[in-house]
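Posting for a labmate who doesn't have an account.
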Amino acid sequence: MSRANLSKLLLAFAAVFLAMAIATLIPHDAPVLSDLGYQSWCPFAPYSTLALLFGAGLCQAVRKHMTTLPAS
């Protein structure tokens, strides 16, 4: 896989992780309250949100590191 394709793939993963992190905070009728005190899509919010944001940040960090590597 070329470096450009890998960079695009990592960007796509970061975007998906970010969208999922936002989705965990959306209010929704759920049988369980989240730790934030309201019913949301994910009862594990804000911990799942932080984990997804960490995944998105990790993808971005790998992309940034790839751009600093010399061409092979």
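Reply:
Got it, the structure tokens are right above this. The first helix runs from residue 3 to 23.
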